[in-house]
Batch of 4 targets.
Target 1
Amino acid sequence: MANLPPSLSIAPTFAAPGALIAAPGVSKDQNMATAEQLVLNLCNPELRERALLDLSKKREFFPDLAPLLWHSFGTIAALLQEIVSIYPSLSRATLSPGQSNRVCNALALLQCVATNADTRPLFLAAEIPLYLYPFLNTRIKSRQYEYLRLTSLGVIGALVKVATFIVQKIMLDDTGFRYICETSDCYIALAIVLAQMVDSAEHHSPRLLKHIIRCYHRLTDDASACSILHKYLPISLINGTVNKYLQDDLTMGLLQQLVCRVNSASRGPHTVLAHMMGM
């Protein structure tokens, strides 16, 4: 547990499955004790499945979960073991729903680590995303594979905040763009992550906002992505709220073109154009 703060130090004991489930309304110390025990249970193969489920479902109650997961001895190794254990099932197309759910819970915990500002650089330096690429390369359409791909995209999406420029460069490359737009799962997940980033970018990073707009604009070059993008485009991009944060005419022009393209491609009585009050 190198570099683990004293408040996060934990003793190597295991609790019975289901004995500890955090709940709203309990004290911070109680929640932390619950998180510590569940993290320890991850290293016990007999208790791991239940611990994965409880931690993934209750992770919002554990504000220090990310550093606890990263710095606790053997925990990340246990999560990676869960991931690589199903690789043979991917190649043989024998993945069961139970296997998929279990690995998705492990991926949810990795997303927690990827989201945290303190553990994100360590996560990237360890090249943990490389373990997720086999999931993204599957082409089987059954539900358990779809969940696995979407959850993996969620982990990678958590890293977009530090890699939006790289994502933009990938999208500008024809091969990278075709890969992103090959399935609706990919471009919808990207659109959702970009939408989540807009609010913070508005006030704190006009440069990031510029890259977000360019990524959205590039998505409109694909007809399928453009046709559903109105569902995922933040209202602040549509009604002119972000205009005052844009620093150049080129980005403003791309935003106007983005909204016009999405409006033209959208279907139904409520079009994007109805919200364009600030353009």
Target 2
Amino acid sequence: MRSEIDHSKYRVRDVLAVNLPFFMSEEDVIGRAKEQVPQRYHDQTWILNSQIMESALGVPSDSEEAVIVVLDKNGNLISQVHGKVTAARMSEITNALQSLASD
């Protein structure tokens, strides 16, 4: 997806939401998360230790599924897909992005 969109038109961000165990510091969690995220995407990845975003998007905090959301420039939810990325789900996201490009 990243290679197929015009980055001057869209802001791509990854969010890793972590339920912080009581025995780990936020720095430790961020360090471990960065081991899983390719270095070229470190500046595009936000690591959160609260459920604020899950609550706002209606994602169960114990969900292990990936969620892709498309928000417009005002923060309105345009599209949201959960689970394994399939051709149909990618098509939905691509269509949502294209609809924003025409605005």
Target 3
Amino acid sequence: MVDGDVPERMQAAALDDFGGPEVITLRKLPIPEIADDEVLIKVWSAGVGVWDVYERQGVLVPEGSALPIVPGSDGAGTVISAGSKVSNVAVGDLVYVSATTRPKGGFYAEYAAVKAEYAAKVPDGVPAEHAGAMPTDALTALAGLDTVSLSAGDWLLIFGASGGQGHLAVQLAKRQGLNVIAVASGADGVALVTRLGADVSLDGHGDMTDVLARIRDAAPDGVNAILAMAGGATLDRLTEALADGGVVAFAHGVRPEPQERPGVTVRAYDGESSPRQLQRLNELIEAGPFVVHIAEKFPLGKVRDAHQRLETSYAGKLLLTVA
């Protein structure tokens, strides 16, 4: 199933055990073969996210996986082989992928085999390398917007707006015609979300009395919904800005989870990687300039450093470069 120009083995960052960053080692592994509904991708780049940490720790291990495990749910690259039942992408296409189910390994490698349904062509306007860091957070942001289900002209507050999911949610929300109040982290975060089109950009580390006053100045009738990429006391205060009947939607994994109170509905959401959602995501992205903000890039050989960087504060996404 593999093209004759492709070597039999590839360099990969793999787990031989579960634990800290030290359990990830570079090694040579066989290039996976593909089934009729799968594609083989020559990987250009891979996203690095907290879900990779959970996989490394043995908390979220893809079904069907066996050690050594190649992590990496997110990636982008070129399709070099496609199964007989694949019709949505073709050999030669530049694609991005979000695949939580990947028993044949992930994107921390020179090649990856995944079900074609998790792959989509890289949309116009997104650099191919950056696309590897986008999929899971972008699909999760889209699911969050679906969950709050607002109409054009409504006010949406995004808490954690300068993070991996948040900065993508700002852009997708503006494409849906929403007014966006972006509560970001620090001066750099505020500058980022301002560049990305937020109508109001605020520092979540600032004085909350002032932050709430500025929100009420912008949306005197209250915000219609909050998308929360983080929890805690700051989020609790921000819910004071909600209109009666407002919604707080929080991404899966946010701790502590926000609690319902009179007049406020709380809903959880998670991303879905499916042909329909990938198509919707691409249509929104191609509606205008779209930025996948990369805080730092690491070569595959520095994957341990990338996982250590995950424990620090940064805006946007981390990226492994493979090709």
Target 4
Amino acid sequence: MQELAFLPTHQMAQRVLSREVSSVELLDAHLGQVARNNVRLNALVTLDEGRARARAREADAALARGEVWGPLHGVPLTIKDAFETTGLRTTSGFDRLARHMPERDATVVARLKAAGAVIVGKTNMPRLALDTQTHNTVFGRTNNPWDVERTCGGSSGGGAVAVAAGMSSLEVGSDIGGSIRIPSHFCGVFGLKPTDGRIPLSGHIPGMPGSPRGVRHQGVAGPLARTVEDLRLALRLLSGPDGQDTEMPPIPFQDVPRRELKRYRFLWTDDFGGMPVSAETRSALAGLARTLEDAGCVVERGTPELDFEQVWLTWGQLLGAEVGSEMPAAARLMTALHFRSMRGDSSINRGIMRGLWGRMSDYTQALSMRDQLMAKVESFLSGWDAWLCPVTMSPAFTHRPSGDWLEVDARRVQYMEGTAGLPILFNVTGHPAVAMPLPRASSGCLPLGVQVVGRRWGDEALLSVAEALTDVTGPFQRPPGV
């Protein structure tokens, strides 16, 4: 039963449809993992066992009648606590929403249910998704399954832990500053930040329930899983307009077959404008580049000419302006004080504060800068299949107060730069990025991931590249003791 919980999602669905295993048996396997691991990891914060069992029994009964609900018929999975779920508590880690019971499903939840999924529960996150660790005053701290003394990342941290520990087959998270990719990297799973505009964020908190969408740029919904094929399955099910998010273009999903690995062309870098990156991270990326060259790929080292101070300021200004647009002055002041209190000076924090209190002209200038950065990265990627770069500056660090110093090879690094400094480039530009685990040097090592970045709107092609890369990076590895 324990091994059932670690099958890839698509294989679980195949086994249910072929009646090799029942939906109830799959659910029991996942609930067994919850019972074994959740007390020490604190990944699931709202467990919906009663309704999940009823849904699993209905799935088995429907199949016995010859009815197939969809590609996820009877498969258990979890949802980040930022996405509204009908009649199931949704808090976004925010005290004022501790008892919020939505009357509707977020679009991604509705689409998963329509595909036949069984919702096991909701996963932990930082307060209103505004941190790169996962802890809040409603549910407490979530721990990394590889080392409970270390962070799992954020803001989709609970989901990454649930997937890594076999408590969920698939998770839907959100990412406005690395929030899918950072936890995937720290926990050793696969995560997709799609092109900005591929998957609707309707029903995501923030914005606040019942209010217009607050965050109009840089934020996306996306899946976390244990295989690239499961990311592809989720993208197929979740993408496309929903009639609520008016900025979603009608781009149909396309099947892009993977090619032989040697037929791909890769750029790579471990250098983003001189930012510190751990020696372990540099060694792993250089090793991957050599392996790809040995496999016959065209591989070249390169970084676009970007001013990363400007990237960080632009990201912060847009986030601050759009999140702050819904806040009363007192809440904006508290948010500004939170980022100002972080140790060390950072362009990311200055940008957020400038956005919170900026004028409309400042906001429109930031949007213009975003367009310029988007064009530079798109031009840089022209003629290449993917760009390989670090997810963060190091593997998972030990738990610490938000905003405290980080250490990268004995060098002190500002908190936001050390966690979100690398991934937010692709939130600014909207490019799709897959975080995927690299081989570990030894059984005692923490997971280490790589960002695989592709051209805008080329999500399906990027997933095919990532799938080919697993020929040399290998499959998901289960954390010890789960």
